[in-house]
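note to self — DONT lose this again. spent like an hour looking for the file last time. sequence + predicted structure for the chain T wanted, 146 res
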Amino acid sequence: MAEVRKLGVVCLFVAGAAALSGSAPVHADDPSPVKAGKEPVRITEGPEVERTTDTWAIIRWTTTKAGGTSLRYGVVHYGTDPHGLSQTAKSPNRFNPALPSMTFRVQMNRLQPGTTYYYRVESANALDIAEGSESAVNHFTTDQSP
């Protein structure tokens, strides 16, 4: 019981200090970085096309694990011009702290049949800020309409 009281006092002290400093309490998915100075995220596998149809495609890649919260976004910039990747597809993901890496899968929808698309990938943190390296530009062609 004494330990519970001590913990309660510590929690109150931390909450009070946060209130006095003007900062909000920290939550489990607080998007602020907790491991500042850690090396940037690197792409270790891919990106590669996992599947295509005539109107959608899935791109997959793996990165090193980043610090901070578990929420991450896989981001694919794509378009029909390799120098003008004007469209973006993004998918939220949560990393498993027990694993040494993180695999992203992002689906691009409303694609045109029989069209070549160019793309590059990157990952972003919970604030939607890029975390490190981005891939080179790659390409795929959607299937012809059935």
